[in-house]
TrEMBL record:
Membrane-spanning parts: 59-84, 96-121, 204-221, 292-310
Single GO molecular function: ATP binding
Protein's UniProt keywords contain Cell cycle: no
Domain ABC transporter: start-end pairs: 385-619
Name listed for the protein in its UniProt record: ABC transporter ATP-binding protein
Domain of life: Bacteria
Domain ABC transmembrane type-1: 60-331
Membrane topology: Multi-pass membrane protein
UniProtKB keywords: ATP-binding, Membrane, Nucleotide-binding, Transmembrane, Transmembrane helix
Entry-linked Pfam families: ABC_membrane, ABC_tran
PANTHER family: ATP-BINDING CASSETTE SUB-FAMILY B MEMBER 10, MITOCHONDRIAL, ATP-DEPENDENT PERMEASE MDL1, MITOCHONDRIAL
Organism, scientific name: Fodinicola feengrottensis
Subcellular localization, as worded in the UniProt entry: Cell membrane
């Protein structure tokens, strides 16, 4: 039996995956336009209420300031009416006291309105910014706490869209939009009451005209609701496609995916443009119809008032005030078009955010946590790791790992080998508790992982991924991620033990050298050394290592292999071996195929048995020559 070269197979898998967009641009569109299931109906309101609750006193203060400001701003037309009916006759009689009183009153109301307006805007801005900051923190914290399977379904671009465009839609509503909406309601109430006071028949007629305006607003909300929900999803799709493409620009250019990416993006972009066009049409329909209703209503009412003034049934001053009030009564609904646009957009965005925050981790924290024994933390010999009648299936498919039992002896290094898709990484992720088994349990020192808090588990089990990601910050800060309370001497000591001290000291600022996210200022081998130093500083009982040397040159591989030996010494270790050179550091080898462990033994024993591992080893040796 001769197995294919595992390196060539892995490369072929990558090519086929990256060529998938050529096979189906429609599939790419579906990937980027799908979203979470809607949150419960009251989730958006509950989220908004929880955001406002800590600021309720300032919200009440802002509301009172707006109520007073809008009341003061309605005094102007009454003063105009008084001036026409009383001040002008007094001035003709050379009595200037009423004129000065009206002028002073008008000036005082204008100043008072401005003061209250400023106080309201300041209070509103503080509440709005604090609320947005709180929401962003919630999204960030909640998304970090969600399990790995969620992040595999929900792209980072879509998460970015939730925290940018959707939060911005809510910010737009809070900074000015709510003032316009609440102000319009207050103005309608104040003006309606004043019109009834000035002339109750006219007041009733003016209120009646508001009926058709209300119908146009309700129709706009109904039509806009679905359009803005779709627009939010379409915007997220564009963001996600951008993020996917430019985060992986190297493979995109390597495998010449520009053309297929263009086709995929054109579909997403056309959908985005169409939905934005629909929202513009809905908005245009609302503005046109509401303006038509308001203008016809004002024209009819002004004509009626003019006939009544001519018939001495209405004072001229009251007529002037009524005309001014009518314009105010219908101007706010006309202005509400843009505000309602922001409102509907914010409602749709809040729904998306609420749906995200409604997600629950598939790997939850235990209700009654247990702790590991001191022997586990100190890496003394304990009961090791036990997979007890474990089976696993992703929620979208069939079983990946059929039921099996496995024990990892304390202090033993176990290499896991097999073809792509054999289940190696899934096995490792069960041990790291990125997933919970669908059947059975995984025990660490006799304790079910489901009863350990995340903090307790991460202290005992550390998983080093193949990417060896480096975060923005200094080299020292990146190593200290393994134990944040470590001092500089401890950081330098583990770096020296790993063999990283020499290259770190050669950097411009040594351990204080600031490196970019991803660690692109250092080589792949150096990134691996920093990651291994981070793990050594954390001092875990169990180390899970996804092959650390697949893309390194020979000198770098030797350095990393030495560092791996240092980190794994005395610890229980599970090593996913893509290159069989890594197997030689293992005490035991698990050969996997189709989710099953088909061979289990020392490297020498398995080579002598001439089974699947021996065939894989022979294929690997042939690939070297």
């Amino acid at each position: 039996m001769t197995l294919p070269n595992p390196l060539a197979a892995a490369g072929a898998d990558r090519v086929s995956e990256t060529q998938a967009p050529n096979a189906s641009a429609r599939a790419a569109l579906d990937l980027f336009t799908q979203d979470l299931l809607p949150a419960p109906e009251d989730a958006s309101r509950a989220l908004l209420a929880s955001l406002l609750r800590p600021h309720r006193r300032r919200v009440v203060l802002a509301g009172l300031l707006l109520i007073v400001q809008r009341a003061i701003s309605q005094l102007g037309p009454l003063l105009v009416a008084y001036a026409i009916d009383h001040v002008i006759p007094a001035v003709r009689a050379h009595q200037y006291g009423p004129l000065l009183a009206v002028c002073f009153g008008y000036l005082l109301s204008a100043v008072a309105s401005a003061v209250f307006q400023y106080a309201f805007v300041r209070a509103e801005a503080r509440v709005g910014q604090d609320l947005i900051a709180d929401l962003l923190s919630r999204i960030f914290t909640h998304a970090q706490a969600l399990s790995i399977d969620f992040h595999q379904r929900y792209t980072s671009g879509r998460l970015t869209s939730r925290a940018t465009s959707d939060v911005q839609a809510l910010r737009n509503l809070l900074t000015g939009g709510l003032e316009d909406i609440v102000g319009a309601v207050l103005t309608t109430i104040y003006v309606s009451v004043t019109l009834l006071y000035l002339d109750w028949p006219l007041g009733l007629a003016a209120i009646a005209v508001g009926g058709p305006l209300y119908l146009t607003v309700r129709d706009f909300r109904r039509r806009a609701y679905q359009v803005y929900r779709e627009r939010s999803t379409a915007t997220a799709a564009v963001t996600a496609k951008y993020a996917e493409t430019f985060t992986n620009i190297h493979p995109v250019q390597t495998f010449r995916l520009e053309t297929s990416n263009d086709r995929s993006f054109m579909r997403i972009n056309r959908r985005h443009a169409r939905i934005n066009g629909d929202s513009a049409l809905v908005m245009g329909r609302y503005v046109t119809s509401s303006r038509l209703v308001a203008n016809i209503g004002i024209a009819v009412l002004v004509m009626w008032c003019a006939f009544r003034v001519a018939g001495h049934d209405l004072d001229l001053g009251a007529f002037a005030a009524i005309v001014l009030y009518l314009r105010r009564l219908y101007d706010d609904p006309l202005k509400l078009g843009g505000v309602l646009d922001a409102y509907q957009s914010a409602v749709a965005s809040l729904e998306k955010i609420a749906a995200l925050l409604a997600q629950r981790a598939s790997v939850p924290e235990p209700a009654s946590p247990q702790t590991l024994s001191p022997s586990t933390s100190s890496r003394q010999r304990g009961r090791g790791v036990v997979f007890e009648s474990v089976a696993f299936a992703y929620h979208t498919g069939s079983e990946v790992l059929p039921r099996f039992d496995l024990t990892l002896v304390p202090g033993q290094t176990v290499a896991v080998v097999g073809a792509t898709g054999a289940g190696k990484t899934t096995l490792a992720k069960l041990l790291a508790r990125f997933y919970d088994p669908t059947h059975g349990r995984v025990l660490l020192d006799g304790v079910d992982l489901r009863y350990l808090t995340t903090a307790e588990l991460r202290r005992a089990v550390v998983m080093l991924t193949q990417e060896a990601f480096i975060f923005s910050g200094t080299i020292a800060e990146n190593i200290a991620l393994g134990r944040p309370d470590a001092n500089s001497e401890e950081i330098e000591q583990v770096a020296g033990t790993i063999g990283a001290h020499e290259f770190i000291c050669a950097l411009p600022d040594g351990y204080d050298t600031d490196i970019q996210a991803g660690g692109h200022r250092v080589s792949a081998g150096q990134r691996q050394l920093v990651a291994l130093a981070r793990a050594l500083l954390a001092d875990p009982a169990v180390v899970i290592l996804d092959e650390a040397t697949p893309s390194l040159d020979m000198p770098s591989e030797r350095l990393v292999q030495h560092a791996m030996n240092t980190v794994l010494h005395g610890r229980t270790a599970l090593v996913i071996a893509h290159r069989l050179s890594t197997v030689h550091i293992a005490d035991r080898v698990l050969m996997m195929a189709d989710g099953r462990i088909v061979e289990d033994g020392t490297p020498g024993e398995l080579l002598n048995e001439h089974g699947p591992f021996a065939d894989l080893h022979t294929a690997w040796q042939d690939s070297l020559t």
